[in-house]
Amino acid sequence: MTFIFQLANSFARRLARLGVCGAAGFIVGTLAGFMLWLLDFLESGALSLSTPQAVRIAAILSLFGWLVLLFLLTTAGRALLSSVVVPTFVNAFLVCFLTVFLTRALGLYAIAWLVGMLAGVLIGYVLCTLYKRGR
Prior knowledge:
It is a single chain. The chain is mainly α. The chain is built from 4 helices and no strands. 86% of the residues lie in helices and 0% in strands.
């Protein structure tokens, strides 16, 4: 049991280095990628999405990821809802669309969770950088 706590603590420290934007992108990207992987896993053959299907899935994942981020930031992070509504929506929207379309274009549904994780960190890092420069 101690090993699990040490692993969770190490993981939390690494996420803290990314900043709130990076951690939020990581969470949404991993979630979106996992959902894509699960969809591919449950599909009887190889998953192939048309453009309208990909847009629909990305929009649904964006909404779901946004709600997860709002829940996490307002309950665990104790942020005010009014201060995180727009930034979390932008983050979730960009990460989910990038994850879905990268995974679709490269056909990497088997490792979609990793594509989502990397896309989330990239988008989160860019958003944090833009936010710091904007101040």
